[in-house]
Amino acid sequence: MNMTFFQKFFLFFSLAIVCAGCGTDETMESQSSLDINPLSAKPSLFDQSPSNMAKESLMEYEEITGIKAVNSDKEMIIAVQIKHMKRFFMAKHRKAWQKEMEKQFPGWKVELSTDRKIYLELDKLEEKINKDTLSKDELKKEMKHIIKLSKEQT
Amino acid sequence: MADEKKKKLPPKAQAYQALQDKKEEKRPIVKNCMMAFLVGGTICFIGQIIMTFYIHFFPFTEQTAGNPTTATLIFLTMLATGFGYYDRLGQFAGAGSAVPVTGFGNAVISAAIEHRTEGYIIGVGTNMFKVAGPVIVYGVFSAFIVALIKTILTQWGGM
Amino acid sequence: MLQGKQTWIFQNHPVIISTGTVGGPYEAEGKIRKSFDILHDDLWLQQESFEKAQQVMLEEAAQIAIKKSPIQKEQVEFFISGDLINQITPTTFAARTIGVPYFGLFSACATSMESLALAAAIINADGANYILSGVASHNSATEKQFRYPTEYGGQKPPTAQWTVTGAGCALVAKTGTGPVITSATIGKVVDMGMKDPFNMGGAMAPAAVDTIETHLKERGVDHTYYDLIITGDLARVGHEISKELLHKRGIDIPEEKYVDCGIEIYQEDQQVLAGGSGTACSAVVTYGHFLKQMEEGKLSRILVVATGSLQSPLSVNQGDSIPCIAHAVSIEAGSDVT
Asked: In CATH terms, is domain A49-151 a member of 3.90.25?
């Protein structure tokens, strides 16, 4: 029983690994396009063109697979997703990009994060901006909340 | 066993141990490594699913989602240990089920179950960390040493 | 009575008038399940602790042995027993229940034959008429005593053994019908410097070989005298090694005449690694399985060599080697003894 169970288990996993291996090659190819949506201008809200500019300049980096950014009048939050194998150098990249963004937007308070959660939250926020369902105060509140979330430590 | 230690034994014992070593069934290292890789990987995969779940549906970031994920894994281990599955898994998975946090959970929980008959204070209380205790002691100790080395290097090494 | 230095010959022929064997759930799936008197499907036996469960098993085995015999409980004069738990308390509590004068023994897994040999010696010397000898062990209680908690998922090497859950008792009498205890050889502690508590078979094999060799020499018989030579709990690894050692000393016992209780008790596909062990291992297999075969006439002379590894968790942790012992008792069919 021991051996047969082991064999079954091993077979199952070999198959799973082979399938997974074959699968990723194809999806990797098709996913090479960047996940970026430029924000549309809304008269009732802050002008989001600084965010769009930030996206454009970060697009240059091949490590990045997706960028989300939102800004108020003096604050900007940027979240990036980077290629899986580049995650080993994530901290280094994050610092460099943060510095670059600060240089690009002098006088702004820039927050750059590589965290998936921040990315998801910004994605939601971008959608809300595009649908024009937010007021200025609400946007500021949401941004404050996201910044607080990004500062949380274990 | 080290050769120096063997030399202290009487020749009869040495001869016997040589014979014994030949006859003794060895641990199947290659099989154990493979099983450890597969089972350990599976446990980590489950952990990653749980973590992604927490990031998507709860206000946890990649930084903070680790804690609830660990707690969930330990809770699952508790069930698996209590129902008697984890030790069977451990027999063929080896390090694969011992190294992840589930192994630590199992070490604590199994000792707690084992000594319940001796009472909650003396039995469970004193024996709970019987197997897991060394992990904590040397975990803290090695963390201290590493921190010390890092401090020395950054302070005087100018890193 | 004493012949040579270590061997007793029992010329008054003490008789095993009845036996009682109890097994646990894992033994109920084993190779010799049909020879148990009681099999439990609950590891706890409805008790609060595994130690109490072990105590209950020993009490049951004693009751069965007495019930199957023509005598009453009050006629039993001594109870000789022991186990593996701290200060042999489960046995002591069982002795309290049985309520007869009691000798408590510790020889680890060799306790079964040590108690039988002592019972036979006392009866042979007119020290008593009826003596109950028996042992019990419990898998979970023993694991807790010697190794990790039962549910701990540590990986055991293939040389590790599985402690038998069960109890076996033999009622030895001065007169009666049944298999006769003809001789016993008390073993010396043999220590080959083995230190791995997960390889007790390998540690105990030299002790078993030493006792078998001494027994055959001092009794003045060849190994062909016995239909079967049974080792206690050497299991697959230890049994193989002991065969090799016996061969080196010029004792070539054919494969089918040299068996081990630790191998006999479980099925091939039961996950017990090298095989069974524990005080109850040799007791249940001998008293249940082999004595039944003797009753059926399939065997007439057997030599049971129970092996014990006498380490404690303390001595192992302090880096001491494992001292081992083996006691041999020869049992012969009643009609065969002259």
From this structure: no
